Structures are given as C-alpha cells and as structure tokens.
TrEMBL record:
CDD domains registered for this protein in UniProt: MPP_PhoD
SUPFAM superfamilies, per the entry: Metallo-dependent phosphatases
Domain PhoD-like phosphatase metallophosphatase: 160-534
Name of the protein described by the UniProt record: Alkaline phosphatase D family protein
PANTHER family listed in its UniProt record: ALKALINE PHOSPHATASE FAMILY PROTEIN (AFU_ORTHOLOGUE AFUA_5G03860), PHOSPHATASE, PUTATIVE (AFU_ORTHOLOGUE AFUA_6G08710)-RELATED
Pfam families: PhoD, PhoD_N
Entries under InterPro entries matching the protein: Metallo-depent_PP-like, PhoD-like_MPP, PhoD-like_sf, PhoD_N, Phospholipid_Metab_Enz, TAT_signal
Membrane-crossing segments per the record: none
Residues covered by the Phospholipase D N-terminal domain: 57-149
Length: 569
C-alpha cells in the first residue's frame, strides 16, 4: 500500500524533518510564501498577550480541502537576525493532539517583506477539520489561532460571514467583536480592507483614528505608506480576534490602492483620478510603481493563496488574485478582482450636459474583469456541479437608475456595473443560458444593505418573468465606512440621482431591488442549505468604542432557487 506524504505527516506528527519550499496552488515561484522544514519546535509556553513579538497577532486565509495559509508578523523591535520562527498545528486548543510542527527559515523573516510571514500548508491537512495553530519566536508564543479546512463530498449546510469596507479613521470595528463569536465556517471579505486615506475625505471632523503616514501625505504615496496603514488597521483588537477565530477569504476593491482605481490601457498604467500622482505630474512610471507598491503590501498583510511572479514588471503579471473555492458539493465560490483589469469609468470627462447624453457604458470595450477573468468566471459557473454558484463581487451588479416605465434615464453610479453594461449582460446571459438557477452574487462597496433580483435585461420590470431572471444579489453593509446617509448629512454632494433615489426612490425606479437601506453598519451571515439560503443582516454601531455593543438584526431574507423567490422572513 502507498502512503501519501500528507498521511505520513499526520501519522508521525513532528517526526518528519524533510525540508521543502512552499508553493501556492498556482505553482508560482513567489517568495511571498515562507520556506520551512517540518519538525522542530521550542518550549515557549509564555503567551505574547502584550504583542512584544507578535504585535499584530496571527491570522489564516484561503482554506482549501487540504490546507490553509497561516500568517503572522514579527515586531521589528523584537527581531533577532538568524533566529528561526516556529509554528505548531494541532486538533485541540491545548495542543495535546499535534498534527505538525515546523521551523521557518530565519532568512524568510526579512525587512524586504516587512517582517510578515505567510505559510501555505496545502497538502498537509484534512478536509472539513478545525485546527488550532500558534507561532513561536524566542521565548514567546503567539496567541492561538483557529482555522477550518473546506469540506469535501456531500454537504447539507454551510454558513459564512460576509463583510466589506472598513475605514479605520471614521469608526470602530465593533462588528468584528461579534464576528469573532459567530459559528461560521469562514469570513468572506469583499474589498476595501484598508483605505488609502490618512483621514477619510469629507469626514475630517469625525475622525477617531488619524493616521500619520510616513510620507506625510493625505493618501498613500508609496510602499511604506501602505504598510503603515495595514499595520495600524491590524493593531485593532476586534479585527485581530476575528482573524484569530476564523479563516478569511479576501479580495480587494479600489481603496487598497486609491479611490476609483482602474487601468489606463492607452498609457498602460494605473488610473487613479483623485490621487496626487495623477492630478499632479501624471507620470505613468510613478503610477505603475504605486500599483506595484499596493500589490506588494496586500500580499504581505493579507493571508491568501494567489499567483505571484516576483520577476514580472507588469502589474497584470506580478499578481493574480481571482480564485475559486469548493465547499463540498454544496457551494462553488468565485472571488473576482474588478480593479486590476477594468477600463476607465465612462461618462466622466465631458460637461454635465455631455455626460448626461453619453452612452459609452454600452460599449463592448468597457470591461470590469478583463476578457481572461470574465471567461474564467463564466466557464466556472456554467460547468460547476455544485448546488450553489456564488460570485464574490465588489461593486453593485444590479441596475441603479432613475427610470420611466422601466427605461433608465440616468444611472446613479458608473463606477459600478452600470458603467460596464455590455460585460454585465454577457455574464448574466451566459449564466442564464447555462441553465443555472441557483446563482448568487455577494457584493460590497456601496456601504449599504441591498437585496435584489438579477436580470438579463433590467428594462423588463416584472420580477416574475423567469426567462429574464438569473439569480439574486445580496449586499452587506460596511463595517465602518461612512454610508450614504452619513454622506448626505455631511452636506457632501453624492450626485442629484443618488440624492433623489435616497429619498425613497430606489425601489420605485428599480423594481428588481427588494430592499435597500444605507443608514446602518455591520455585516451579514449567509447560510446555504440544499434547497434554500438564508441571509441575515446585522446592524452594529461603529461610533463608540464598545466591542460589546448590541448586535441587532436589521432583516432576514430567504431565497429558494427553484421558484426564484426572495422573501423577507
């Protein structure tokens, strides 16, 4: 009989000493994943509760059926040249049932990676198993983290928390205190894990955490600025506890780089319309470097299994973060990247009159995902045999417009999918044509709670036209980022269309939207069952520093794909 390497490691615990280099599932030669040898540990029993060494605690991400990415950061003030880092994994919190121990080579704890360590345990764990892990450095042990590998085979139920948009400067992360206590398999983060701002623009009189960036800028200008922001966010105890207790699956939106980021294909460089590098010199090389800096900081501070090519000079080749996850036969999840490859937001460069009559949003040259990623998403959903096909998406997919008899007169937000309508129709029509009736899109970005039907043609107003219905879109409110109600109350211009829609016009003008609110903060929990899903939105105050603040149910929704019924419970 043949014994696999994984089975042998699990059987022998810490006995195996063979060295190997970690590689991601993408078979990249990335140095983002630390090398280690199995076996060896220290007797460090004192827990570093004060963060003397593990100042940002621990985290895990991108669980698979055979592994997970573990993450930590060594405080530079505690760093000792040549000293190894150790990691223990066990079945129990007391580590009396060890699975493996390993030594991370000291040469992989460097200033070049800002003393962050990502370890990919792919191939060394079993499906649907909860594990506990800890790092050790010198005479101190990190706080214990908990992770959960993905299930395989037949599955009746899976539950996930869904989060987005966590500006640290204008609010407290109280929601994460509650997420830490949720009985969920993992946490999906749909983007804006950080904001590039030293202070959230327009809310300077409401700042609770002001960030003094190393560059002295008002927004991130380079790698050190991005790193500083990640470190400040990751110091938050509520976020730390949530990331200790659950594995996160994270994608990004615009603010991990800069507001309304896109790719300027004509100049082959980053586009960031309100960033000083574009409003100032507009130097393409400087903008390319800003994108590279944002990418590097992301892979340093986010535990994720992604494709990285350290030798690549172009942003497209350096990092690919769109990827999929399989939860047994119940859920296939596709996490996309709608910022790296997207074209410029349409209808912004003319006068108000010209922009009103602009129809560039209909052009097939407008892309959010790029052709390769779009085909990957369509093929994945169409060929999936899982009960539920789920898309982790960043900006609102459903139409949001001022209309007359169903015909849109003007759209509220061209930065969302209304600015990329040809591609939206390509995706939704392909999903419909594939016969997929259990298609769910999870969305962030708008700092609102939305439940909506998805249609091939949004001009057809009936929600009972099954030939036109594709699935549902569910948007989670922001953790802390200012919502539309806050923005309007501050007197900040959100556009005449948004303003009119907020005054009770969203559902009247967009009958596919079943529910819309933009005056709460919090998160959502989604529960997938074989025949239905349940979506619960929680409202949690972010304005006072109070981790035990009340968790209130805003609304609960049920969706049955057979009849395509989205109902409030």
């Amino acid at each position: 009989m043949t014994i696999s390497r994984r089975s042998f490691v699990q059987a022998m615990g810490v006995a195996l000493l063979t060295p190997f280099t970690i590689r991601s599932l993408a078979e990249t030669d990335s140095e983002a994943y630390a090398r280690f040898v199995l076996g060896g540990s220290t007797s460090s029993d004192e827990i570093d509760n004060d963060g003397l060494v593990f100042d940002l605690s621990v985290a895990s991400g991108d669980p698979s059926q055979a592994g997970v990415v573990l993450w930590t950061h060594v405080n530079p003030e505690a760093y000792i040249s040549g000293q190894s880092l150790y990691v223990d994994v066990a079945l129990d919190e007391g580590f009396t049932q060890p699975i493996l121990s390993a030594e991370v080579n000291a040469s992989d704890i460097t200033a070049e990676r800002d003393y962050t360590v990502n370890i990919d345990l792919e191939g060394y764990l079993l499906p649907d198993q909860r594990y506990f892990y800890r790092f050790k450095y010198g005479n101190l042990s990190s706080r214990t983290g908990r992770c959960h590998t993905l299930p395989s085979g037949s599955l009746e139920n899976i539950k996930m928390a869904v989060v987005t948009c966590q500006d640290y400067t204008t609010g407290y992360f109280n929601a994460y205190s509650h997420i830490a206590d949720e009985d969920v398999h993992c946490v999906l983060h749909l983007g804006d894990f950080i904001y590039e701002y030293a202070e959230y623009e327009g809310f300077e009189d409401s700042i609770v955490h002001s960030l003094a960036l190393p560059s002295g800028g008002s927004v991130a200008m380079d790698l050190e600025d991005y790193r500083h922001i990640y470190k400040e966010y990751r110091k938050d105890k509520n976020l730390q506890r949530a990331m200790e207790m659950h594995s996160f699956i994270i994608t990004w939106d615009d603010h991990e780089t800069a507001d309304n980021a896109y790719w300027d294909y004509e100049r082959d460089t980053l586009g960031v319309p309100s960033h000083p590098y574009q409003t100032g010199d507009n130097n393409p090389d400087q903008l390319r470097q800003l994108r590279r800096d944002a990418q590097q900081a992301w892979i340093e501070y986010v535990p994720a299994r992604v494709k990285v090519n350290e030798s690549a000079s172009h942003a497209f080749d350096y990092l690919q973060i769109y990827r999929s996850f399989q939860f047994g036969d119940l859920v296939d999840l596709y996490m996309t990247d709608s910022r790296t490859y997207r074209t410029k937001e349409p209808c912004k460069d003319g006068t108000d009159w010209e922009n009103y009559w602009c129809t560039d949003y209909e052009e097939n040259t407008q892309t959010m995902l790029g052709e390769t990623q779009r085909d990957w998403l369509i093929d994945g959903v169409a060929n999936s045999t899982a009960r539920w096909k789920v898309w982790g998406n960043q900006t609102l997919l459903a139409q949001l417009a001022g209309t007359v008899l169903g015909r849109p007169l003007v759209y509220a937000n061209y930065d969302a999918w209304d600015g990329y309508q040809w591609e939206r129709e390509q995706i939704l029509s392909s999903v419909k044509d594939s016969g997929t009736n259990n298609f769910v899109v999870l969305t962030g970005d708008l700092h609102s709670s939305i439940a909506s039907y998805l249609k091939v043609d949004f001009k057809k107003v009936s929600n009972w036209n099954y030939d036109n219905l594709v699935g549902v879109e569910l948007m989670t409110p922001s953790i802390s980022s200012p919502n539309l109600n806050d923005t309007v109350e501050k007197g900040i211009d959100v556009g005449s269309i948004f303003t009119s829609l907020l005054n009770g016009g969203v559902q009247v003008n967009n009958p596919h939207i079943k529910d819309f609110v933009s005056n709460i903060y919090g998160y959502a929990v989604i529960e997938f069952n074989v025949d239905e899903l349940n979506w619960t939105v929680y409202s949690i105050d972010k304005k006072a520093d109070n981790p035990s603040t009340a968790k209130n149910v805003y609304k609960k929704f049920n969706y049955e794909p057979v009849g395509m019924w989205l109902t409030e419970k």
